Amino acid sequence: MSTDDEQPSRNLPAAEWRELRAALTERLGRLILARDEAVDDAERADLQKRVDETRQQVQTLAIEETVAQFVEDSERYIIAGHPMKQELDRDPDAEIA
Fold it and tell me: Residue 49: which of 29, 35, 63, 68 has the closest Cα?
């Protein structure tokens, strides 16, 4: 993800962030295997740098997924209405416990 055009929209649903994170996690696994199998120190160092960068990207995607899930859950809660409000709408004289 080197240019703005390549970056995913920040308004993706949590499920899409999860899919992106899963794909990147698979890539991370392949990078780790390649790093562990590398015989050349320079190649190993380069792969370690890529592993570190990819780990950071996976963490970033996990944060984006969490934020998106929070927003989605909040929207569902608001749309469904607070249970206390629904109870008061049914019986305005009800006592609030």
Answer: 35
